[in-house]
Automatic annotation (TrEMBL), chain A:
It is found in: Cell membrane. Its main location: membrane. It is a multi-pass membrane protein. The chain crosses the membrane at residues 47-69, 107-133, 145-165, 193-218, 239-262, 299-321. This is Carbohydrate ABC transporter membrane protein 1 (CUT1 family). It comes from Enteractinococcus coprophilus.
TrEMBL record, chain B:
Pfam families: SBP_bac_8. This is Carbohydrate ABC transporter substrate-binding protein (CUT1 family). Residues 1-28 form the signal peptide. It comes from Enteractinococcus coprophilus. PANTHER family: ABC TRANSPORTER SUBSTRATE-BINDING PROTEIN (PTHR43649:SF30), ARABINOSE-BINDING PROTEIN-RELATED (PTHR43649). Keywords: Signal. It comes from the Bacteria.
Length: 331, 444
């Protein structure tokens, strides 16, 4: 197939194909054979180069992502105690159990609340901070660094520090609340307060990431549009909702997808450190740990929940890519 | 063109199916055996003719910050026997060590491993541990010197699966300064007396709370076993879970719930922190916490036996960890491992280990005079071993049993939950866990 460089891709393809057919019908069998050999050699060379450069990465991905993924899917069909050399095949029983048990439904409820709180909290606060940081204020570089730094800190370390702050008897927060005559909530003993606490800590840790990404989005908005709107007497609120927010939709979309995935998978360190037994904070990622390593030793059941989490994230991402992205306003 | 696409699609489908089939075959080959054929080919080894190996591997989480004293004891062992011990830090706590040992599935390369009272049983069920009775005999270790209740913790179906090592029990701690201010002369001996002195402490307004119960993540089912036993209740009787909702257990837990409305509270974290800070006047915590409490408290600390109740004098549940020997090791390494376990739990070693860590001595002949001189409170912990009682199966052996009990206890202590209804639900849950995860594998 001959490439045509001066036309559109479609035209080039059609024209090239026509020429190729014409050549095929007129040339001798020897020439055709030689061309086939050349093509095969070129293909072989391309494949060798591809394998040379991509092969090691493909092998690593196969070994450390797809092999464990498929292994996990296989284990999810077993009634298997962690570490046991024997197991019983149970088909889809583990999935049925997860979707029909009371504890499974509770896990979905907690996961939903945590994800909604963590994602919305991080994004709304991140956007507000980004709007402030986008202004030419003194010390804004230091402020940006300070706001982003919690994101790169260890989740365990962050959670341990917040444990000292939230302690209702000895914590800093309880002393502040007591100063105003307010009794500290039982952050660790009450399920609802425990969930609120971990959402607050996760939002604090994560909002720097959202702020920095929003800031990048804000800085890509053409200033002329803002200035033109200002000349047309559009106030800050109007400018935000009519210009800034529509132009930020790709950033919002990107953050929405990544934050949902992060909050469902990356929050484990904070949850485990602040609430070691998952009291009120048993999200799906925590349940995977609890069912296998944490308490129940059910490796097969835990694997099934992990598969459910994988497909949940897969579906969320696919739906967002398929339907939400269409409505995103790209410049 | 359509024909070509069809061929390509079929070719891709064939390739995909082949790859998937190979992958599935590989997966089933690497996973657990699902054939349903029991592996009964293990035969008991006669250790009498076996020579100990020259080198073994010891997996430990250095319980109670014991790295230095462990190294010292290991050096002594190597000097005495010529056997080299490779020490592997296998985790930050008992749970991590057990998880690592379990997931290694026969590739652990550990000959001796530290496993706690609550983590050794799943490893037994996985056939990862070897009974130590014959091994100890072959290694000239006399188990009759161990504190009986501590050694009996590892007895199952007629064989012992470990030797006691870093063992602890709950202990009653009280703030002597608070007692003096409230005019209390002596620590309570029964739970009724605990209520009386606690009311006096509350009246004297010396602390936020007279007594602090542990929260869900601080093993309340361990320390509160004493309260339940004192009223004649229990978490279970062997594999019978009806005692967990018996009238005696409910009476005990009702007492605790009433206490939280009057003179007790539930700590947010480790009750030892509240006690050390003077926020709680009395707690029941591990003997292993004694060193930390003495270090951080700026008041005089008193220790006493756990309280008794209508059913008799106070009993203390055993706890902590033991040394287990891997079934996958060679007989030579197993014999050397038994010699090592015997050395680490000998009267001399356990005295040194207790002195450095705060764990109770596991050997009746341990000379603890030096420890008592330095820390007189520790004598109570050792004397209390006479009242040690092996924990109930519901907490120790049922996977998830401890968590179910802990959740229920926190619910009772922090809300107005109906005690009887809560414990009946726990019984149902324990029976369900037993039926689904254990019944087929344990002796009825």
């Amino acid at each position: 197939m001959t490439a045509v460089r001066d036309g559109s891709g479609t035209e080039g393809h059609v024209v090239g194909s026509t020429r190729s057919v014409a050549q095929d019908s007129s040339e001798s069998p020897e020439l055709a054979k030689a061309r086939k050999q050349r093509r095969r050699r070129r293909l072989s060379k391309n494949w060798s180069l591809f394998l040379l450069f991509a092969g090691p990465n493909i092998l690593l991905i196969l070994a450390f992502i797809y092999y464990p993924l498929l292994s996990n899917m296989y284990y999810s069909t077993l009634d298997w105690r962690l570490g046991s050399a024997t197991a019983t095949s149970v088909g889809f029983d583990n999935y049925v159990r997860f979707f029909t048990s009371e504890s499974g439904l509770e896990v979905w409820r907690v996961t939903g609340i945590f994800t909604a709180g963590a994602v919305l909290g991080s994004m709304i606060l991140g956007l507000l901070i980004a709007l402030v940081l986008n202004k030419k204020l003194p010390g804004r570089t230091v402020a940006r660094t300070a706001i982003f730094s919690p994101y790169v800190l260890s989740g365990v370390g962050v959670a341990m520090v917040w444990n000292f702050i939230f302690d209702p008897t000895l914590g800093a927060l309880s002393h502040i609340l007591n100063f105003f005559g307010i009794e500290s909530p039982q952050w660790y003993l009450d399920e609802d307060w425990a969930l609120t606490m971990v959402i607050l800590v996760y939002v604090w840790k994560n909002l720097g990431y959202c702020a920095v990404v929003f800031l990048a989005g804000l800085q890509s908005i053409p200033q002329e549009l803002i200035e033109a709107a200002t000349i047309d007497r559009a106030g800050p609120v109007r400018r935000f909702f009519s210009i800034i927010l529509p132009l930020l939709t790709p950033t919002v979309f990107f953050l929405l997808v990544t934050n949902i995935i992060f909050s469902m998978t990356n929050a484990f360190d904070v949850l485990r450190t602040m609430t070691p037994t998952g009291h009120g904070t048993n999200t799906i990622i925590f349940e995977i740990y609890l069912q296998s390593f944490g308490a129940y030793q059910r490796a097969g059941y835990s694997a099934a929940i992990a598969v459910v989490l994988f497909f949940t994230l897969f579906i969320i991402t696919a739906v967002q890519l398929r339907y939400v992205e269409r409505k995103v306003h790209y410049q | 063109m359509t024909q070509h696409n069809g061929r390509a699609r079929r070719s891709r489908l064939t390739l995909g199916t082949t790859v998937l089939s190979i992958a599935m075959l590989a997966l089933t080959a690497c996973g657990p055996d699902t054939s349903g054929e029991a592996n009964d080919d293990a035969e008991a080894t006669d250790f009498q003719g076996v020579e100990p190996a020259e080198e073994i591997t010891f997996w430990t989480n250095h319980p109670g910050g014991s790295q230095d004293i462990e190294n010292e004891l290991i050096e002594e062992f190597t000097e005495e026997t010529g056997i080299t011990v490779n020490v592997v830090t296998s985790g930050a706590n008992y749970e991590e060590t057990s998880q690592r040992f379990q997931t290694a599935q026969g590739n652990a390369e550990a000959d001796v491993v530290v496993l706690s009272d609550a983590t050794w049983f799943p490893n037994y069920l996985n056939d990862s541990l070897i009974p130590v009775d014959d091994l100890l005999e072959a290694a000239d270790v006399d188990p009759s010197g161990y504190v009986e209740a501590l050694y009996e913790d590892y007895l199952y179906e007629g064989s012992h699966y470990g030797v006691p090592y870093a063992r602890s029990t709950p202990l009653f701690y009280y703030n002597i300064d608070h007692y003096e201010k409230a005019g209390i002369d002596a620590p309570p001996e029964t739970w009724e007396e605990v209520a009386e002195v606690s009311k006096q402490l509350m009246e004297a307004d010396v602390a936020n709370s007279a007594f602090a119960f542990p929260p869900q993540d601080q093993y309340p089912a361990w320390t509160m076993a004493n309260l339940v036993w004192a009223y004649g209740g229990a978490w279970s009787d062997e594999w019978d879970f009806s005692p967990v909702s018996s009238s005696e257990t409910i009476e005990a837990l009702q007492f605790a719930q009433d206490a939280t409305k009057d003179w007790a509270n539930v700590a947010s974290g480790d009750p030892a922190d509240d006690f050390s800070a003077g926020a709680a006047s009395q707690i029941i915590q591990s003997t292993g916490s004694l060193g930390g409490i003495l270090e951080s408290a700026d008041f005089e600390v008193g220790t006493a036996f756990l309280p008794g109740g209508p059913a008799g004098e106070g009993q203390t549940p055993t706890g902590g960890a033991g040394l287990m020997i891997a079934s996958d090791s060679t007989p030579e390494r197993q014999l050397a491992a038994a010699m090592f376990a015997g050395h680490m739990s000998s009267a001399e070693s356990t005295a040194k280990f207790s002195q450095e860590t705060g764990y109770v001595p596991v050997h009746v002949d341990a000379d603890m005079s030096a420890v008592y001189e330095e820390t007189p409170q520790f004598e109570t912990a050792v004397d209390q071993l006479e009242r040690a009682r092996v924990q109930d199966n519901a907490r120790l052996f049922v996977p998830g049993g401890d968590l179910e009990l802990s959740q229920a206890l926190q619910n009772i202590l922090t809300t107005d939950a109906d005690v009887e209804e809560t414990m009946q639900n726990v019984q149902t849950e324990l029976e369900s866990l037993y039926e689904s995860d254990l019944a087929g594998e344990v002796e009825q």
